[in-house]
Amino acid sequence: MAEAQSANGHGGGGGFELDPLHQFEIHAIVPIQVGDLNLSYTNSSLWMTIAVILITALMTLPTRGRALIPGRIQSIAEVLYETTANMLRESAGREGRAYFPFIFSLFSFLLVGNLQGLIPGSFTFTSHIVVTFSLAIVVFLGTTAIGFIKHGPHFLKFFMPEGAPIWSAPLLVFIELISYLSRPVSLALRLFANMLVGHALLKTIAGFVFVLGIAGIVPLAATVAITALEFLVAVLQAYVFAILSCIYLNDALHMH
Amino acid sequence: MNDPEKPSPLDGLGKRIKAARERREDREGSGRQSRSYSGLGLGLRITTEMVSALAVGVGIGLVLDTWLGTQPWFLIVFFVLGAAAAFVNLIRVANQVDAARRRDEEGAERRDDGA
User: Fold this and answer.
1) What residues make up the domain containing A133?
2) What is the nearest CA distance from B78 to chain A, expressed in angstroms?
3) ipTM reported for the complex, 2 dp
């Protein structure tokens, strides 16, 4: 699949190339082949590694001094921590506190991943549905498992709205089941679509700048505005992904 | 700072932290989402919720059909069920946003009274 993508990407030929999807190409940096599995270390993996290193550095280095008055970098780390803690407390209550490490890792990974994508020439790993869907499926399976562990078979009541007449059960259970199964899909789709569309739009409009000559100042201004918007979207989408995970967790813990 | 005569600035800190924590516990609730959505964000959220419910319905229908060889009956049934689930999702999001807005308004009123 990676080969097919790169073949398409370079299909444009020489001359002036306008290929807004070129930036989403995955190419192997260290090719690793295990049997039929392609486990290559790709540019996507590289940026994920950078994200993890950045987060670890942000969390460990500034707090090394154990200063009473936090420095600038430590303040960033503390704001991130506080935001996540508040988000979890407000949406999942006290019992949700046990899952703070997971939500925090998820939020910071997505946040740094989204923001990294705004560095020119970088790769946005959240713009691939494989990545977002894997994360969403982890959240989905995790919350479902927590629901069954906490409530046992009572968790199945989740699929039958209270007070509904019994004859409508077969219909309602299927509808609720589909609604429940659509959660990871919508979670993955939203993040992926936002990142993909934003970056493709930015590249497309930026491509007009040189083509239009002096009138290129208009798309240039638009590019600047969209870049600002993209910063907002990057932060907001990481936040939305994390808060919806918290809400799903709350459903599993308290069943509404 | 180690001067025993001078009260350390940290003396009252434990008490202050405790008070702040209690205030926060009061606000603590479950399932609340105080952030009100911007129009664009809300639109995108509803779109993805509806599209994904429909996609899951169609997906289940197609899988069951190819598995049992009953084209196109399960697809039709689950398409309709998926559409219904899409509306369930839509109503759920609308209720959430509605509740969040009401809570924000109440909070604003309470702040006005307090001032």
Assistant:
1) 17-254
2) 9
3) 0.72
